[in-house]
Amino acid sequence: MIERPRRLRTTAAMRRLVRETRPRPSQLVLPAFVGETGAEIKAMPGVLRHTVAQIGDVARAARDAGLGGIMLFGVPDDADKDAQGSQAWAADGILQRGITACREAVGDELVIMSDVCLDEFTSHGHCGVLAADGRVVNDETCELYARQAIAQAEAGAHVVAPSGMMDGQVRIIREGLDGAGFEDVAVLAYSAKYASAFYGPFREAVGSSLEGDRRTYQQDPGNRREGLREALLDLAEGADMVMVKPASHYLDVLADVAAVAQVPVAAYQVSGEYSMIEAAAEKGWINRRAAVEESVTSIVRAGADVVLTYWALEVAEWMA
Ligand code: PBG
């Protein structure tokens, strides 16, 4: 026998030497929720909804841990929701106030990102405005996304991240930002976003009002080629970074996108991915730390330059 791959696995030091994938804190992004009131999110043990007064501390902790960024989601009170989701672009909307609090806390020392989508703000819970027959109207929704992106840029976001899966959303947001003088605000496009059951816990986190599903705009889980198509379209529309979401069950799509993208590629380890490991660990069925580290490593190995994960702070601590 000449080839003995096990030689390179003999000691921990040897394995460390030859390890191909080494996730770093600077490529991790912490998703965080900001609302009028704080709360524990039952379906995501260990994840909190923060108030505007608290969210600056979260940003400071992310900066101090050496993370790459924070991705903010706004959770308005139900009374502030309407059919259009107008709090999404109100200057004093909850997400805009959260962005400003983070920017005041950390300035340019952490990349502040915000979700561009109407679902948290609409009374019906869909990601866009509805026609009389209940369909989500594409082009009108994109115009509202542009207004929302501008409001977020005005509030201090470095990166806006459209997650609504409307066709043409990246181009209209880019034009809107440029027209308002925000040429330097980057667009991270949720390009290949699938209609996933793994968003379940997130719906509790944002107090979603959704009935039904998002299958007329988010992608069908069976489609691999289409994920690449969506990413290429977003690049042609001017996306500065592209994302695949969820992460762990879509590593093939992630690898496809990473193979061709000439921009950084992000992957979002979503709420269900988080909660499943937490639940199994709590039952004693899985080694929590090992499972978390393996999941993040696998996402990077598949091609992610940037990983959004609810474990970002803890993983960064382990890495240090
Ligand atoms: C939409 C949005 C969702 C998530 C991020 N942005 C929910 C959805 O599409 O239903 C899910 C994130 C997660 O599950 O962690 N604004």
From TrEMBL:
Task: Quote the protein name from its UniProt record.
Answer: Delta-aminolevulinic acid dehydratase
NCBIfam families on file: PRK09283.1
Query: Can you list the GO cellular component terms from the UniProt entry?
Result: cytosol
**Membrane-spanning segments:** none
**What is the documented function of this protein?**
Catalyzes an early step in the biosynthesis of tetrapyrroles. Binds two molecules of 5-aminolevulinate per subunit, each at a distinct site, and catalyzes their condensation to form porphobilinogen.
Q: Please report the organism this UniProt entry assigns to the protein.
A: Arachnia propionica
Entry annotation: catalytic residues: K193, K245
Q: Where does 5-aminolevulinate 2 bind?
A: S271, Y310
- What is the residue range of the signal peptide feature? none
Q: Which SUPFAM superfamilies match?
A: Aldolase (SSF51569)
Which Gene Ontology BP terms does the record give?
protoporphyrinogen IX biosynthetic process
Q: Which SMART domains match?
A: ALAD (SM01004)
Q: Where on the tree of life does the source sit, at the highest rank?
A: Bacteria
The entry marks the following residues as binding Mg(2+), namely E230
Q: What class of enzyme is it?
A: lyase
The uppermost taxa in this organism's lineage are: Bacteria, Bacillati, Actinomycetota, Actinomycetes, Propionibacteriales
